[in-house]
């Protein structure tokens, strides 16, 4: 058995850091969503790039699949080893290697989480802004091209990774990018690996852009009579050139779930949560401009949170959005959708989605990063009821079709994994075949996270 | 002869829009720099994507090389057809197809120039910010991943192209990206084609991000005693979080050239040219902050240009920088270097370059986009003197080595073309082989701009 031979060699390489315990395999066979548990054959915990390279060479020699693993918070089953083989858990490669204050960048290992990174950065006056909600590893965030609440101001992982070290399918180690802020030196390999979900290589180091902690921050929450009013307030704000650091929409159902989860008493109507970063006067000016815009759109109950503890309460509430919704249907599972549309179509997309869910008799509160046109519905269902899952998947399918028809994308930030693979041909057409050709060129034996991202091989 | 057969078929396809006139061939065999004229076999002027696709199929059937052409302003010989074949000039595909004000994006053909695009956008309150100086075509700008004076605020072409339509080497047409502001849907093909210099496909349409014309703009020029002082003022400004829209450095030699070219009388010492975009109060606040910073670094002769005509004069001067330097050595040619380093190393990089040029007896004024760490020396030489060119190339070579040793890149914005090909292995290591594998996968017969970008085939 090739797998047994490979595992024997990997044990020699890694010792106790090659785990085959049932609990470890089960843990690494789970995802955050509704997919069935699919344990790999082994879990490896490398400590160095050299070990990852050796591991990859052993697996290549024995044709054993290799799937990277950060902290397991991806939402589309990206890290599930459907073909078995070895899961590479980067938990032991979680160091901040260097911080360059003058250049506002940092070299980090893939296993460091965004919260741990920001904790280490606190005294420097710098921070890493990408915030997908979950305390994900930065390697995982790069692999799925994560973004979240702050992307409207600071960009996604695409914009905040300067360079990578990557172990290729044959064990070679490459470095992409440099520490320069921009480059025209050849194909953008950094951009190619970001978002490739471990199908082209294993990320073993990242050079990240950092940003200055803003002098002043202010946040606010505001209620609206309708989603239309809230979205129009957002589009006006963008058109006016007010630079929001975050702008989040919660629909009435999400607010109800919050109230129940946290014992709060917000008015049960759509809300916007917004944050501005800048100088004291800049933030005050933006806040004033935003206040005028929401007044034009029947905003009410406007409440500023200027103190850090108030802001933390606000964003903790937002980050607990999915949990509040799960809490509303104890014992059920949630399918988290993730479409992104041109902002001019956002109100239509949300309203049509809400109407569809209601007509389908489904419970699916809507919330999202409306500054980017990206929103989610967490559609709940009884996992013991096969028909219920089919109905939820059909509704999710209609959301994707609607987004594509509006010039949007099936996924703003969660990525492809297993859940979105059926839509790749439709969104990309012949471009999907181009992705397959790139995969074939870089991973001819289909070792890296096989069965994901690209068309099946003949 | 395969080429004759191909040209006969192309004539049938394009009629008079397949040109073989000597003047046209010569024109398309020229570059902006010192490379010898290398006329192609024919120049094609397609009007539609369909024609580009048919052209590509004919050339593929006869193994005829195809090289894209915008307006010929690239600086490293990117569009020179060294292997002959057909140059595809996109001059007849120069329309703005649609402008979506609500979404702040536009669909354009590759042949439209950035000035023509901004002229069409003027009434919309939006603009396309990427400004490489030359009035380049947006297709060419995407192909070389151009940037320029405004990248420090608005990003490069990498950041401002949402999606592309591309004709592949076999004539297939793909669309990359969507009109959504962000996506996690698979490999970033948009990012892969941007900067690929026509070696992976021909861009036939671009969806571009637009930005709101700022409410207020102010610009200034300021003199310094040394390059060190000027660069320290820039790094302090970045650290303070002041958002500059442009920040340009001119060394004393560049100022001397300006004075001679334009009959000006600026003090012959290093200068910074800066511009701020924002609200009236925001711009005033940034200007005040910047004023305090330059005072800390012995800045003097600080002069604000708030009126549009003053600003235009300032940036026209900057954009004429290279011409002013050419003018200082009539009849000579210039080799324009383009390194980019981490900003903490910028003063060292510039000072060492200036010392090196002086020690080598070369005339090479230095100017650049210091907010990104990107600078140029225009090194002049007598083109009739072979030894002079060798000496200039050796100095340029040392600039690249210095940039790489500092963690930077050989090219911040001009790209690879012919001039930088010798450094690809050194900057990218095994990553260059990965680029070669991608090229092989997408253009197996090596038809698209052959001899550029990737390692030679065996």
UniProtKB/TrEMBL annotation, chains A, B:
GO terms classed as biological process:
lactate catabolic process
All residue ranges annotated as the FAD-binding PCMH-type domain in the record: 35-213
Q: Which PROSITE patterns match?
A: FAD_PCMH (PS51387)
Alphabetically, the GO molecular function entries are: D-lactate dehydrogenase (cytochrome) activity; D-lactate dehydrogenase (NAD+) activity; FAD binding
Q: Which cofactor does it need?
A: FAD
Which of the seven top EC classes does this enzyme belong to? oxidoreductase
Q: Which domain of life is it from?
A: Bacteria
Q: Does the keyword Manganese apply?
A: no
Note the InterPro entries from the entry: FAD-bd_oxidored_4_C, FAD-bd_PCMH, FAD-bd_PCMH-like_sf, FAD-bd_PCMH_sub2, FAD-linked_Oxase-like_C, Oxid_FAD_bind_N, Vanillyl_alc_oxidase_C-sub2
Alphabetical keyword list: FAD, Flavoprotein, Oxidoreductase, Transit peptide
Query: One of this protein's Pfam families, by short name?
Result: FAD-oxidase_C
EC number(s) given by UniProt: 1.1.2.4
Family named by the database record: Belongs to the FAD-binding oxidoreductase/transferase type 4 family.
Identification of the protein by name? D-lactate dehydrogenase (cytochrome)
Could you read off the lineage of the organism from its UniProt record? Bacteria, Pseudomonadati, Pseudomonadota, Alphaproteobacteria, Rhodobacterales
């Amino acid at each position: 058995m090739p797998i047994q031979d490979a595992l024997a060699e990997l044990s020699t390489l890694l010792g106790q850091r090659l785990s085959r315990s049932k609990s470890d395999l089960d843990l690494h066979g789970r995802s955050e969503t509704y997919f069935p548990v699919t344990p790999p054959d082994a879990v490896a915990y490398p400590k160095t790039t050299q070990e990852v390279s050796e591991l990859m060479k052993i697996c290549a020699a024995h044709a054993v699949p290799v799937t990277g693993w950060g902290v397991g918070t991806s939402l589309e089953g990206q890290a599930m080893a459907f073909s078995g083989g070895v899961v590479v858990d980067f938990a032991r490669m979680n160091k901040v290697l260097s911080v360059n204050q003058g250049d506002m960048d940092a070299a980090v290992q893939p296993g460091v989480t965004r919260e741990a990174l920001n904790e280490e950065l606190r005294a420097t006056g710098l921070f890493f802004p990408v915030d997908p909600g979950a305390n994900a590893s930065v390697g995982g965030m790069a692999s799925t091209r994560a973004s979240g609440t702050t992307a409207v101001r600071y960009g996604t992982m695409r914009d905040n990774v300067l360079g990578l070290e990557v172990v290729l399918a044959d064990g070679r180690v490459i470095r992409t990018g440099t520490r320069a802020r921009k480059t025209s030196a050849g194909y953008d390999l950094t951009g190619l690996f970001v978002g490739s979900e471990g199908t082209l290589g294993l990320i073993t180091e990242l050079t990240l852009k950092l940003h200055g902690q803003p002098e002043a921050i202010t946040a606010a929450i505001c209620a609206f009579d309708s989603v239309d009013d809230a979205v129009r307030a957002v589009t006006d704000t963008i058109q006016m050139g007010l630079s929001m650091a975050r702008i989040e929409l919660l629909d009435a159902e999400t607010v109800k779930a919050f109230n129940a989860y946290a014992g709060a008493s917000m008015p049960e109507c759509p809300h916007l949560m917004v944050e501005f970063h800048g100088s004291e006067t800049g933030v005050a000016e933006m806040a004033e401009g935003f206040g005028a815009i929401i007044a034009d759109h029947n905003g009410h109950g406007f409440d500023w949170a200027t103190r850090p503890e108030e802001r933390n309460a606000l964003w903790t509430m937002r980050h607990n959005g999915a949990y509040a919704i799960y809490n509303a249907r104890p014992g059920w599972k949630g399918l988290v959708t993730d479409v992104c549309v041109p902002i001019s179509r956002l109100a239509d997309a949300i309203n049509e989605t809400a109407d569809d869910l209601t007509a389908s008799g489904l419970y699916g509160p809507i919330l999202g990063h409306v500054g980017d046109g990206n929103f989610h519905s967490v559609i709940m269902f009884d996992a013991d009821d096969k028909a219920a899952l089919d109905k939820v998947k059909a509704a999710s399918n209609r959301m994707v079709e609607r987004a594509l028809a509006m010039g949007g994308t099936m996924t703003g930030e969660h990525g492809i994994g297993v859940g979105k693979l059926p839509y790749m041909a439709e969104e990309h057409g012949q471009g999907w075949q181009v992705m397959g050709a790139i995969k074939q060129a870089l991973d001819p034996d289909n070792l890296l996270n096989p069965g994901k991202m690209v068309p099946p091989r003949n």
